[in-house]
Fold these 4 entries.
Entry 1:
Amino acid sequence: MHRFQYDKNERLKIQNPVQILTSLGLKKGDVLVDIGSNNGFFTIPAAEIVGKTGQVYAVDIDNIAITDLQERLKDKGFFNVETFISSGEDFRKDDINADIIFLGTVLHDFQTPFKVLENAFFMLKSGGKLVNFDWKKKETLMGPPLDIRFSEKQAEEMLKKAHFTDIKTEDISENFYQVTGFKD
């Protein structure tokens, strides 16, 4: 696993989590799984968007990040988020019927990304989607080393192999792309 620390204000300049999540179609009442949630950069905005009738599952292998997230959720009064300390490869729950599974700039962090995608496919409801929002495979001022990043094409191929259909790739900005796949 690779760990990168970003200044939140700097990160907000290049990634607006509310805008990203709403552009995915996330709405009130939805169920979202944030795999590789860290301390909640996307989790907390997702909890706000889905509201009391929705549910967010935050998964990260870093117990310190999850503890920090739990404290932040408590301070904000969010009770619609369930947290898990787990690797993406090991996280697979039978009772999750997700509308969206979100991977926010983390696919390169997993030892076995394909296993994470298989587990995600299992936890999606029929018609649900997986979204891999990720760094482009080019030099950028922030982000992981170039050699561990996946290109858009590599991400598409992994989703196809994990049985996702109707795969779409979008150019999000000079630094990011997004690959979306659906479960039939």
Entry 2:
Amino acid sequence: MIEQRTGILTIEEFISLYDEEGPFEIIDGERITLSPPKAGHVSITKRILFAVERFAIEHDLGEAFSEGPFVETDGPTWVTGSRVPDVMYYTKERLTLYKAEVPDWQDKPFMIVPDLVVEVISSNDKYTEVAAKVDKYLEDGVLTVWIVDQKRHTITVRTPIDYVTLHMNEVLVGGNVLPGFSVKVAEIFR
């Protein structure tokens, strides 16, 4: 007998739909198709990914990934939600533990909430939708969210208890999630 649940997918169904229909997120039971990113968006995402990944590798802190999904689960086989941040970062300790607990992790989307996510606001994004998405990340357990605004050339750093908006002449730091990391905001938008 196959167990069925309303509003959620098995891991296999999630992977199959993702392969067939392209990237999507599942937020509050609703499947949201993602638009392909534009060149400016991709360029900024690459700069952030490169800066975070280079620093994390040099200091043996963790790993960063781009445009990949992570899923929320109800048990080992049921997907209850999914997100596709522009960049996501996991600390070494959490990622090592996850890989040990999920031996076939390479054949699935990440089934662990990231420590840090980056959302690059695109020209077609609505402010209210981005704000709601950031709130969901924090509710999911993400520790820090960087919201990169291409038009205003700002980066807003959100945590569950605080936020700050950085401008071109300021420096983005990694805080507790990526200790010692720093990059000039202007470098991200060059």
Entry 3:
Amino acid sequence: MSSVRWTERIHNLALAVCRRPETIYAHCDIPCGIYDPHEAQIAALTVIRMDQLIAELAVPAAAAKPEEHAAYASKIARYTAVKEQHAERVKHEIRVIYGDYITADHTAKFPQLPELVFKIFKQASKARQGTSLGDAQELLKLVQEFAEIFWKTKNVAVRRVPSQQKSGGELVVPA
């Protein structure tokens, strides 16, 4: 290929990359109809577990070796990061279901739903801000309540089963 053709191709590529962006209109959500509050429940259980691990972590004595202080700080940082990620995941999962699945008919039938979602968001934030096991357990309780309503919107009976996780707790699942 001649150098003129290469120069022309590079010029055309530069024009394509550098041109003014065009406005594109598209529907970004695919109406797949696949929604399940299970992930939000697992995320809430993870918040509980991280608070448990933080509570169980022994603070090294002032005279402890620097490595012990570093290991403690590392564990606290990791547990806190995971707790915060999963509290945010609760909010994300609930937000997607509420925004993409819940309809006006659902909120008419379950008028407590908007307030419940608001409480979940606030409780997830509260669980992120501290290490209170009670706050984390309250988050799970609210998410379980949401899960029960979710399945009722589909006319599906539910039951509570042990989570089988180290955090304990239960999961709301279809019966």
Entry 4:
Amino acid sequence: MENKDLVWDLESFNKQQRAQNFVMGFENKLCVYSANVEQLYTNYNIFFPKEENRKLVILPNPYAHYDTFQGITEDAVKATGLYVIPAESTNVVGGLQMIIPLKSENTKYRRVPLAVGLRLINQKRPPERPFLPVVMKGDLRELDTETPCLHLHMLQLSNLPKLSEMELGDIQKVILKRLHELATRSS
């Protein structure tokens, strides 16, 4: 595969099958960013090919070229420190939770249901600049030896001056639609 950003290594995972099951729940729900080719993929499939031992491969839908956005520069994608984890890791059955870092001396982070976390984040943002999460290579990690987690990056449309207002609107619309589907599924 030419784009190495779309091949993720799972070699270091203690619970590889659990990580695979976890990440499959995000297929076509979170957009995938590739800095290598400056593209954002919104329509893709996740595979675990046997010949690519312990690798996750993201394959963009070749028949949906309009679901791949070009010219997404690396400076428009920022790390957030936000993580999504399976809720069962916190003794809650089903769904997803978000880990939100806190600036408190007593508590380093807070775990909340995904939909609640997204709502909290967006309450602190201007309505015209909603939280637009994307994932990229290296974002699938282990929180501990048992729990897979997914780090979220954020797309900042204001850092994409070469794209038209229509393109920016389309990107925002698709990310928010997929995010809504994910949050609804996990609640």
